[in-house]
Amino acid sequence: MAARIDEFLIDVRPQREWGWLVISYLFLGGAGAGLFLVSLYLEHLWAGVLGLLVLLVGTVLLLLDLGRPERFWRAFFRPQTSWISRGCFFITLLFVLGVIELALQWPGLELPAWLSEGTTLRTSLRVAGGGAAVLVMIYTGFVLAPSPAIPFWNSAFFPIIFFAYSLLAGIDILILTSPMLPGPSLDLMLLERNQNYLVILCLLLVLSHVSVMSSSAVAARESIRLLTRGRWASLFLGGVIGAGLIVPLLLALPVVWEAQVQTVFALTFILALLRLFGDYLFRFLVMRVGLYDPLL
Amino acid sequence: MARYGMVIDLDICIGCNACTMACKSEHATPGGIFWGKVLEKEVGKFPAARRIFLPVLCNHCKNPICMEVCPTGATYQREDGIVLIDYDLCLGCRSCMEACPYGPRAFYAGDGAYYENGRTPFEEAKQHFPEGIVMKCNFCVDRVDQGLNPACVQTCPTECRIFGDLDDPQSEVSRMAAEKKARPLLPEKGLEPSVFYIGG
């Protein structure tokens, strides 16, 4: 195995360790937890099932990324300092509380009075499940944010950005799968209106992060150059900002102004696909423009 | 207790990479993986252009971020400050590689042979790394425990590297660091490296 020539130069270095498996986990893990959170709000059993399945697929991809996947259980040993370790607990907690919550919602199941809807225990379980989902949505931001090595990641924005994007993606998966999901029908127009607020939030957060980083350390400025004028500019400006956020926002105007139901139905699918594309692309680019400061 | 560290004089380093080869010879590191290496950069413009060399290795930081982010406890620090990896505990998640700003760590996916036709007798005899783990410079801990210098220090033909106890004000490494105002790489990261540089 040959070493790369640029490994011997004193310069800004790109991170190459975390690739598409980690990127896909960031996307699917966040979207799955986001979808589960929304399912709790909507009290939609099958949306919750789908959310946990999406999270499961993401978690399997993350395990496959490990050099020694059979040792995954060792990652639970350092929650006092390691966000990856804490994340393992959050994911496990979400799966456990999620399965309990969905089991309690199962149709036809006769529950004892102390577990029925509206009891303190039931409400507490639901709140804890929602809390676990929020933690899964944001912890990946904390995995990146404390890193002093990669200035572009070293930002308090990431946990919030990942939360907003995860919720956006979760609702988009719900919109896309709504015709196939059993259970009560969903108000797509209402979901779509809420997506507009999330899109505006994502846009503000991403642009704020870019703005802060453009006057930060050398490597962060190079990351911003790559995103706005360099190799990844077309994907970032055209894909993440344009196709993923601004175009859906503009196309969603007919929904805001309450167009015909049929129009909304077709449009929301297109908008959801565009936003999901932008979300995945955003996480891809966050990994690709992670650069280390030069040593001298 | 000692706190081991190193001072590297960049004015003396000639970029010969003898340290790089001594390290590979000592540890039989897999192909493409270097626990220590010499980085270079061209500075200035013709006719005043010149190359500068920067020998790098694990900085064995006093506050090792790699240890903090490790989810298994595979990365640990001895009382003498040397930061090591327990290969039996490492998951290969590479979070340590993402967290360290100095870039001395490498992921070993397997098949460490240098040549296409399989492992050499030297590799067969000395190269026993498990696959799927992260590896890095260990300050030649086996040699240090025997009272010897790390292989890179022992080999350097210009004697640009000095190794010793940073906590002992009488040691050569401490005196050099104090007299020549040695500085670490990227001190702003707050990791308190144990490798210092003078000159350059």
Task: Describe, in plain words, how this protein is organized in 3D.
The complex is a heterodimer of chains A (about 300) and B (about 200). Chain A is mostly helical and about 300 residues long. Chain A has helices at about 20-40, 45-65, 85-105, 120-145, 155-175, 190-215, 220-230, 235-250, 255, 260-290; strands at about 15, 290. Chain A has one domain (about 10-290): Up-down Bundle (Formate dehydrogenase/DMSO reductase fold), CATH 1.20.1630.10. In chain A, about 70% of the residues lie in helices and about 0% in strands. In chain A, strands 1-2 form a two-stranded antiparallel ribbon. The longest helix of chain A is centred in the C-terminal third of the chain and has 28 residues, at about 260-290. The mean pLDDT of chain A is about 95. Chain B is an alpha+beta fold and about 200 residues long. Helix content of chain B is about 20%, strand content about 20%. Chain B is built from seven helices and nine strands, in the order βαββαββαβαβααβαβ. Chain B has helices at about 20-25, 65-70, 95-100, 120-125, 140-145, 150-155, 170-180; strands at about 5-10, 35-45, 50-55, 75, 85, 105-110, 135, 160-165, 195-200. A three-stranded mixed sheet of chain B has the order 8-1-9, with helices on one face. Chain B is globular. The model of chain B has no long low-confidence stretch (mean pLDDT about 95). Classes of the chains: A mainly alpha (about 300), B alpha+beta (about 200). At the A-B interface, helix 3 of A face strand 2, strand 3, helix 2 and helix 3 of B.
Can I get a quick summary?
Chain A has 296 residues and is mostly helical.
- What is the CATH topology of chain A? Formate dehydrogenase/DMSO reductase fold
User: Could you estimate the helical fraction of the residues of chain A in percent?
Assistant: 55-70%
CATH topology of chain B: Alpha-Beta Plaits
- Structural category of chain A is mainly alpha
Q: Name the CATH superfamily classification of chain A.
A: Formate dehydrogenase/DMSO reductase domain
Query: How many domains comprise the coordinates of chain B?
Result: 1
Number of DSSP strand runs of chain A:
2
Poorly predicted regions of chain B:
none
State the shape of chain A: globular
Low-confidence stretches of chain A: none
